[in-house]
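Predict the assembly for these two chains.
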Amino acid sequence: MQEIIDGFTQAFQLIVTLNPELLQVTALSLYISLSATIIATLIAIPAGGLIHFREFVGKRVLITIIQTLYSVPTVIIGLLVFLLISRSGPLGIFGLLFTPTGMMIGQTILILPIMTGLVITALSGVDRNIRDTLVSLGATEFQSIAQIVREARFAILTAVILGFGRAISEVGVAMMIGGNIRGETRVLTTSIALETGMGNFGLSIALGIVLLAIALVVVLIMNLITSGALSDSDRIRGGPMA
Amino acid sequence: MIRLSGASRKFGERDVVSGIDLEIRRGEIFALIGPSGSGKTTLLRLIDLLDRPTSGSIMFDNSPTDGPEHERRTVRRRMAMVFQKPGVLNATVGQNIAFGLQFRGMQKGEVHEQVASVLEMVGLSGLSERRALTLSGGEMQRVAIARAIVTRPEVLLLDEPTANLDPLSTGIIENLIVRVNHERKTTVILATHDMGQGQRLAGRIGVMMEGRLVQAGEIYDIFHHPVNRAIATFVGIDPIRHGIVLSNDHNLATIVVQGTSIQAVTALEKGQQVALCIRPEEVTLSLPGTCAPASSARNCLAGTITRLLPYGPFTRVHVDCGVPLTALVTRQSSEELNLATGARVNATIKATAIHVIPDQEPESPSPHGTKDRQ
């Protein structure tokens, strides 16, 4: 019990004094996971759009596979990316193993299925009537897809935020691809794992609090947007997540 | 303007519309009328080139429309369709109306002007910045119409534009449709299940039943000379069945129906099984004993009132004259004649006001546009 109380006391000290190592780890976590989220968004929206708007053989099967991959274990993605980018792997020449870039790639692959799947769900939520209306108003295929994506913006934003949540909270990829190198690839989750193992509960608790605080901020922003407090769509488009 | 030849559309194995032959004339208001599920929406979608016909062809301005999608889009941009559900997007009223213009690459300034002018036309000035989803049903439908007409289409397609709207909104929208047709010479094709709306707005009417266009023509023809019993019922006539032509002298036929002898003008020959269509407003009621002597072109039948139904400013009077008749009289004459259930009256109908249709079993669908009289 005393251990936990001491841990919290130390954690608050670290946070209040803006401990440099804590800040550095937090910044790197945000940098890697935000980058992965942005890249995955840029892929998931067009990919989800294509899958939703085009009719093709195996569409149902593809969607089922995507949905299955929502819950792919992070260590499996870690293993896969490791095999691809390690020295002897097909992408070994780029030397991406144990780099932040490698971690971004891994997290992008990890969150791509859930984001693509939720984008498809978001687009299916737009009334079929809207699409007919746009086409009958003379929209090209691209113009109508762009408007429907815009119409589904709140649901798509949810997909983006869930993707970010999965990226920043995962350990498998960060550990296996990043290698938890201090000052280089050490992020919030891998630090917690390491510091806890070494008995530095104070730092672990501080890192955990920061991680939860990030989640809280994300949820607050999402609620703010979807509740219509930021009802002007133009402000949303320039908003923090999209 | 638009010509459909044998146009059909299947969904799976089911024919939703089949064998539609129809010509829409430039500048007219054409109403497609029929019960729900008769294929009106599907036909409008074919005309708007949203769907391709499974078979048959559609010509727009004498050009075929079966080309690749970009060619069809060029034609589609000369039309605009308003769907039954307004399909308003989660944006401002102004943004909603601007879509069609933006898709055509119009400059921002001009878009702004056009949107403002069309908002004025539909009576929603000043609502440009409102979020469209906060409008009432009637206002939303006006936004949908504004969005369609702002592109100045040559053809305006409307699918049940006033279904589920209150009478006031319906009136506003009907006026708008007539105005667009009048001022801009826009050809209007309107699908409705409301017979009265078709009658109020359209010059010509096409009646759809079970995916087929069963009759197309001038309003008067449809209302007074329906080609079969189904249409007769739909336009508000209860056909009197099981008649038989007893004799026919130069198109003035004597028909016996349920034991009563009635004179009517028809070319159908002796021995033909028929049904009689009599519009309630063509039946005149008078007190017993005041009946004018039956001339050769006038039927005078004595009967008993079985039922009185208020019908707007009129009263529908059901009279049993051996055959069931319905008369439409004003409230005032209803009071003057002291009409009441059980009272005796005389019903007078001109022979020319009785529309005679052949009544065979089973009923064969009639080819559209043909007339079975004279």
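Chain B touches chain A at residues 45, 48, 50, 69, 73, 76-77, 79-81, 83, 85, 87, 89-91, 99-100, 102-104, 131, 144, 147-148, 151, 157 (CB under 8 Å). The two ends of chain B are 30 Å apart (CA to CA).
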